[in-house]
Specification:
The protein has about 220 residues and is mainly alpha-helical. It has two domains: about 90 residues, no CATH class; about 80 residues, Structural Genomics Hypothetical 15.5 Kd Protein In mrcA-pckA Intergenic Region, Chain A (Roll), CATH 3.10.290.10. It is built from eight helices and three strands. A three-stranded antiparallel beta sheet has the order 2-1-3, with no helix packed on it. A hairpin with a 2-residue loop joins strand 1 and strand 2. The protein starts with 19 loop residues before the first helix and ends with a helix. The C terminus is likely disordered.
Length: about 220
């Protein structure tokens, strides 16, 4: 069992450290979902792997007990909004890492408009500003259930509970007005008169001193 004081690793590392396609995928997802490091990505990937391993095990089994476990397993995935309620057990194998990352609390906070960016959403969670179903949750990787999506609010003891706080996201209508100013309307002036060419007056000849003497 090991030492109870020492926490066991909850994820599996990649089998090969240098794989170009995998490294590129990890780099893109780390930036898109605001993950702190690759350990967080490997944790979510391990959860996906456990779901698929359990699915393969249930597909092989038959009997009344197996059917009960299949029903409970699909209900669990349905509550996490990973699979619809009327799906078959085989369709669980089509889940991707993006489906798991979309259910993280950090992603849900950003998608719901409580934060301006995915990184700011992580900051709000770790600092204890977010309440989920009347409980403070400071774990960005917490998988949000479908019945908890509408129960995400700021803590009443947080300064962010004030809607006028500068870090709160502005309404979309205000953002559109700021980014897209209205064009200036010109006052109607009637028919435009064609501009007449300016006539140049002929230059007057100056009398030379010789002409003056002749006169």
């Amino acid at each position: 069992m090991g030492d109870p004081k020492k926490q066991r690793r909850k994820f599996d590392k990649p089998s090969h450290p240098w794989q170009r396609d995998r490294l590129e995928e990890e780099r893109v997802l780390l930036k898109e979902y605001g993950l702190k490091n690759k350990k967080e990505f490997w944790k979510m990937n391990s959860i996906l792997g456990k779901f698929k391993a359990q699915t393969k095990s249930l597909i092989k089994r038959e009997g009344e007990q197996a059917e009960k476990e299949k029903t409970l397993f699909l209900e669990k995935l349905s509550k996490l909004k990973l699979m619809p309620g009327d799906t078959s057990i085989e369709e669980v194998l089509n889940l991707t890492i993006n489906d798991i990352l979309e259910r993280r609390l950090q992603t849900i906070v950003f998608r719901s408009g409580l934060a301006k960016s995915i990184k700011q959403a992580r900051q709000f969670i770790t600092h204890g500003h977010i309440i989920v179903n009347k409980k403070k949750v400071n774990i960005p990787s917490y998988l949000v259930r479908i019945d908890e999506e509408g129960l995400l609010i700021f803590s009443e003891f947080s300064a962010l509970a004030d809607e006028e706080h500068p870090e709160r996201k502005m309404p979309e209508k205000v953002i559109e007005k700021i980014e897209e100013p209205e064009p200036v309307k010109e006052k109607p002036t009637g028919k435009k008169e064609a501009s007449k060419p300016v006539e140049k007056k002929p230059a007057e000849k100056k009398e030379t001193p010789k002409e003056v003497k002749k006169k």
